[in-house]
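Deliverable D4.2, example record:
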Amino acid sequence: MYENYLKRLFDFVATIFGFVLILPLFLLLCFLIKLDSKGPIFFKQRRIGKNKTEFMILKFRSMRIDAPKDQPTHLLENPEIYITRIGKILRTTSLDELPQFINIIVGQMSIVGPRPALYNQADLIAKRDEFGANNIRPGLTGWAQVNGRDELPIAVKAKLDGEYVRRMSFLFDLLCIARTIKSVSTAEGVVEGNLDRQKVEEDEKNFNHRQE
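Output generated by the structure prediction step:
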C-alpha cells in the first residue's frame, strides 16, 4: 500500500514543494557551473531503475568534459584532476544531486530508496537481486547512504538496501531523510579516488559477522 500509492504521492508533493523552495539556489548553481568551466550544466548518465529498467539520471556537472565516463568517481585513480572548482563544492555538499528532483517528479526515482546503480555495475545489481532491492524505485538517498555512503563495499550496500526494502514505511523514510541531512552537513562517507581495498574487505567481514 505505502510503496505503490502513498510513497509516490509523498515523493511527488514533497519534491514539487522542495523544488519551488530551492529554485533560486538551483538557478544560481546553473550560472556558476557555466561560468566555471566549459560544458553543459547537467550531467546525464545511464542508471538502473525499478525492475532493472534503465533511465537517464540527472546531476549538476561537477567534472570536466574529458573525465572518464561511466565509472564511479571513487574508483578513479586521480579524480581531483577532473573535478572543477565549483564541482568540488557541489560534490562535498551533495548539491550536485539536486537535478534528480526532476527524476523523482517524473516517477523514475523516489526520495528514499537504493541509490541507482550504473548500468555496468553488474556485481552490485546481482547482489541487490538477492535482497529484492532492484524491485523498487531507486532513491535520492537511502539506508545504505546514511550508513557509510561511498565507504561501503558492494555486499554491505546490497544488504542494507535489502533491509530498507523489508522496513520500508513512511516513518522509516523520514528517519532516512533526517539522517541524510546530518550526513550531508558533515560530508560523512564521501570518498574521492580509489578506496582502500583492505579497509573495504575488513569492513565487509565485520558487517557479515554482525549479521550472523
